[in-house]
Structure to design on (107 residues):
């Protein structure tokens, strides 16, 4: 329980920080209670499905705003693009790990 509480506090703090940074760039105000509620629900679902928990990505949000993102659709589009790239380049990732394993066997 202490580890879960610590991770929850860190993820919540990072999400609030991201909200603060985005608010200062866009000159708007977000609802932090909805931000934290979404963070909590998402992390609970990650725990139930065996996934890794996550927090808001501050620099990704800043990059999206600076490149012209005007809606929250970028938060859906970004992971989809990452999954597509990962699936296309998985053969190189697996090949690289096999090379590393072979190199460690030589030593």
């Amino acid at each position: 329980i202490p580890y879960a509480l610590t991770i929850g506090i860190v993820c919540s703090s990072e999400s609030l920080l991201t909200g603060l940074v985005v608010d200062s760039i866009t000159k708007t105000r977000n609802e932090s209670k909805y931000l934290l509620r979404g963070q909590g629900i998402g992390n609970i679902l990650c725990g139930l499905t065996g996934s890794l928990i996550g927090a808001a990505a501050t620099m990704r949000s800043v990059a999206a705003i600076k490149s012209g993102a005007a809606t929250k659709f970028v938060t859906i589009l970004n992971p989809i693009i990452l999954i597509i790239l990962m699936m296309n380049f998985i053969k190189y990732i697996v090949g690289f790990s096999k090379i590393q394993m072979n190199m460690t066997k030589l030593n």
Notes: The mean pLDDT is 81. DSSP finds four helices and no strands in the chain. The helical segments are 2-26, 32-49, 58-66, 74-106. Residues 15 and 56 are 5 Å apart (CA to CA).
